[in-house]
């Protein structure tokens, strides 16, 4: 079983419009309402793979009840700890060109007592699990060390953890030693405290790789950086790889990173090589982009994208699409 943690779930509402008029009336051509939050998207992306999952988190109020009921209809097993505060909502507006604007409410304030109840439930559920995914923002009231505490509980049970969060929670979580950390470029920049872009605005591949290697040195077993249209860069104990889809994919990128996380933990559990994990992660992310809402994808789009993913091991050689040679420097490179 894979235990997926979503401490700050949401009810996601997505509006599709031909164009957005920010000063006038907009009439959506399609409206979708789904259970959301990064961990929820991971669980929904995992469900078609057939591995037992359990989605755990915190939920409260009318919105929390709506999220739980929607997950039940989607056949996603849940174990939410009830909170006094109201679960948040998120709103996404997608225009005809595939551009998306997100409006994310902050979520409820969670008390120490409520988190203690969740932590006890998590400690029981993680025993015997194959892996744990900790994904998304922390609700107000929880300390930045909340994910680190859960990673430690999982480690005590011998269960590897995959972490996908940001800010102080990411830094504290890395120090707890998760098996895999999956930041995006902005999150990696914030964690490293330096720009990872070149003077012309493109990626500084050497800096990205060095920053990811630094996260490994801080405690993570492996780091997979999601780079949008530039693919995925993985820095692991076994080496470093760059995965890239053959063609740019347009659509709603909301939830694409969660699909990547789902594929990474699935590959971890079934024992795929890093090369295959990244191929499947890039393909599932691409399939998620062309789906109408986060957390969903077409199996045909997923399998079709697999053949178009190129995975290249990198070190002193060039990263695909880059004119910058990525060099191993004093323990900061791949190893």
Topology (elements, then pairings):
Blueprint lengths: L1 E5 L3 E7 L13 E7 L1 H9 L6 E7 L1 H13 L4 E5 L5 E7 L5 E5 L7 H14 L5 E5 L10 H11 L4 E4 L2 H9 L4 E2 L3 H8 L12 H13 L5 E4 L5 E5 L2 E7 L10 H15 L3 H16 L9 H8 L2 E6 L21
Parallel strand pairs: 1-4, 1-8, 2-6, 4-5, 8-9, 9-10
Antiparallel strand pairs: 2-3, 6-7, 11-12, 12-13, 13-14
Helix pairs in contact: 1-8, 4-5, 6-7, 8-9, 9-10
Order of helices and strands: EEEHEHEEEHEHEHEHHEEEHHHE
How much helix is in the residues?
25-40%
**Strand arrangement in the largest pleated sheet:** 5-4-1-8-9-10
Shape: globular
Secondary-structure content class: alpha/beta
Using only C-alpha atoms, the radius of gyration works out to 19 Å
Q: Give the rounded overall mean pLDDT.
A: 90
Low-confidence runs: 316-333
Q: Which percent band covers the strand fraction?
A: 15-25%
Distance between the termini: 30 Å
β-strand number: 14
Q: Do you know the CATH topology?
A: UDP-N-acetylmuramoyl-L-alanine:D-glutamate ligase
Instruction: Supply the CATH superfamily name.
Output: Ribokinase
CATH architecture: 3-Layer(aba) Sandwich
Please describe what this structure looks like.
The protein has 335 residues and is an alpha/beta fold. The chain has one domain (2-314): Ribokinase (UDP-N-acetylmuramoyl-L-alanine:D-glutamate ligase, 3-Layer(aba) Sandwich), CATH 3.40.1190.20. Helices cover 35% and strands 23% of the residues. It has 10 helices and 14 strands. A 6-stranded parallel sheet has the order 5-4-1-8-9-10, sandwiched between helices. It has a 4-stranded mixed sheet with strand order 3-2-6-7. A 4-stranded antiparallel sheet has the order 11-12-13-14. Helix 4 runs parallel beside helix 5 (167-175), helix 6 crosses helix 7 (205-217) and helix 8 runs antiparallel to helix 9 (274-289). The longest helix is centred in the C-terminal third of the chain and has 16 residues, at 274-289. The protein is globular, with a radius of gyration of 19 Å. The two termini are 30 Å apart. The model is unreliable at 316-333 (pLDDT under 50).
